Major facilitator superfamily (MFS) profile domain-containing protein
Amino acid sequence: MDNNVTEKTKGFHLFKLHVKETTDGYTDKTPMLQYILVSLLFPMWGAAASLNDILITQFKTIFTLSNVASAFVQTAFYLGYFLIAIPASTLIKKTSYKLAIMTGLSLYTIGCALFFPASRMATYGFFLVALFALACGLSFLETASNTYSSLLGPKRLSTLRLNISQTFYPLGAMGGILLGKYLIFGNGASLEKQMAGLSGHERLVFGERALQNTLLPYKYIIFVLIFMLIIIALTQFPSGKPKSTPEHTVEKASIGETINYLTHNKKFLQGIFAEFMYVGMQTAVWSFTIRLAMEVDSSINERSASTFMVYSYAAFFIGKMIANFMMRSMSPSRVLQIFSVLGILSLLYIVFVHNMSAVYFAILASGLFGPCWATIFAQTLDTITDKRHTETGGAIVVMSIIGGAFIPIAQGFVADKTDMSISFIVNVVCFAVVLIYATGIVHNHKQESLED
């Protein structure tokens, strides 16, 4: 009996599906058009996340915020991810990955549109609301796309597929930071120096004018989102869900069963904690790289300092490419272990050396983030042996992104109490957690090999 089953979907599709699905939700080969379209969603949330690094620098000066208060940009952003991930997985379970992706693109568009009234209101709180709404859309996209990318092809290559899709993320991040660099930040002295001599009405008018620049990147993003939404609507996608056959019946699991299964899965919980700490570290390093550059060299302005973020995302991209190449000859967990050791050393350099070279080590650390998210994500999903729980399990991994809401605040607190360089010790602790996780996986694989 052939275990391959082809999804039959209703409706008009301009771009058809030409692969077969297996009973465990994977496809017999990778549908390249569908895989590319899903992979192109990754730079879309990369652009949004990198623009937060620009907004933190912009809002800190305009609204006269502390490092802790400015980090609430990330809190609002990642809180949206956290709260919506389970509803997103429920939608996937009841309908399809495709509908969840289209819902995410729609909410992302609405979130971008909210920046227009936010700039008119000119209040920090309204911008945080807009960021929260935008992040709700991104939560749908990430919950669907991370899991879906790993399913679009044979199971044995699932981790590599997700790592390749994740390689597109820094391209979007670079695009976002360049939009912010040239459309939000201006030439001349830093924003802080320009506003230092202003008071009262003059300062208010200058701040409102600067906030208008915040709209510009989101205008371009809206056009891209609408285009992506149309193309995906016209494309047929596989279901990515386990199938029932005469020999194998798949019963749906209730949310209670899934939660009970996952909370008793020790390896799954370890992966969640590692992802929480990793995302927090990544977000914190990128949130404060511009501030680090401006603190160690007070002569540069925001636009000049944001160039270092372009380098950071370029390093991130290169790091992913190197990690993908290394995974051809060694296990993903071993690659993660090597990158973690080097990442810890890079971050320790920033803590102890307070000059411009520390900024370049922050860039190096970004490169060493390369294999982290995708490898931890895919290996955490692999611990779910009962595939009825995959959608919700993937959503809970996405919920671990909430680390990006807390770790930057912790680093901002340390920075306010000491200085920006010393505050990077928070990230050293986070990378140490990732190293411990990777070492544990490597050890488990060795044990399994010995038993075989």
User: Anything to note?
Assistant: The chain is about 75% helix and 0% strand. Confidence is low (pLDDT under 50) at residues 1-9. The longest helix spans residues 266-296. The two ends are 30 Å apart (CA to CA).
